[in-house]
Amino acid sequence: MKYEILPICWIALLSIGNLNLQAQGEVPAWDMETFLDSAPPNQLYMAAAKYKNTDGTPYFYDGFLYGTIHTKSEHSIPNVGFKYNIFDDIIEYEDDKGRKVNLLPVQLIGFSFMDPASGSTLEFRNGYNIYQKGLNELSFFELLFEGKKVQAIRHYDKDLLSGGAAMNVPGANTGEQTKRFTKEKVVYFLVVGEQATEVKLRRKSIIRAFPGLEEKVKQYMKQEKVTGTSPEDLVKVARFVEGV
């Protein structure tokens, strides 16, 4: 994990499981103050100043996002303003009194918000059995497609460069600047049953993610002129395999 603010003593890593937020039906609605009051001290900490002398930000979107947070206790907290820190993979919340709190993934099963760029609602969740590239069951993934057999998901991240590496980035401030966040990185996965496979947005990579169905997927992509070079193409293929 890449948490840098305060050391966290994990009592145990919780096995959350792959939950369908929409299929749960209605869950009790909380407000954020009730949630914060109920959180164990080791799962909640006040945000501290960090990333000083750093160019860029660790956020998915620099401004506030507005949406719904889904807690591990299966409560839903609607109409919350927050920031999604994709570098640390945490939610940052600030209440009306200016109190800044970081919500750890161990407290949550997911969240959703309206994307300021597209106006569409994006849904994120954790609980996937993906253990590579620093990912684990607490890592958040955007849900692109969900069927009973197949899911298409993606994970966002950023790198934090320091020293000479930060200065080599075009446009970097060469004054007191010593650190710099890179542009966001995205990695895609196709989940079939319990098996998650990392895929590139390339035709061959997507086809290989479906052992035993390669020929059918290949023919579908050829007939429908699906190149596999966009997230939309990934969703099209996932939807096709779901119906096979």
Q: What is the mean predicted local confidence, pLDDT?
A: 82
Q: Going across the major beta sheet, what is the strand order?
A: 1-6-5-4-3-7-8-9-10-13-14
- The helical percent reads 10-25%
Helix/strand class: alpha+beta
Biggest beta sheet attributes? 11 strands, antiparallel
Number of DSSP E strands: 14
How would the global form be characterised? globular
Indicate the radius of gyration in whole angstroms: 19 Å
Distance between the termini: 38 Å
Helix count equals: 5
Q: Strand share of the residues? A: 25-35%
Low-confidence stretches: 1-25
Order of helices and strands: HEEEEEEEEEEEHEEEHHH
Question: What attributes does this structure have?
Answer:
three-stranded mixed sheet, alpha+beta, 5 helices, 244 residues, globular, 16% helix, disordered N terminus
